[in-house]
Amino acid sequence: MASEKELSDFLKSVEKRAFKRVVYAVRDDDAALDIVQDSMIRLAEKYFDRPAAELPLVFQRILSNATMDWFRRQKVRNAVVRNFSEFESASDDGDFDLLETLALQDDSPATESAADSVSRAQILLAIEAQVAQLPTRQREAFLLRYWEELDVAETAAVMGCSEGSVKTHCSRAVHALANALKSKGIEL
Question: Which structural domains are found in the chain, ordered by start?
Answer without folding.
Answer: 1-84 (1.10.1740), 110-188 (1.10.10.10)
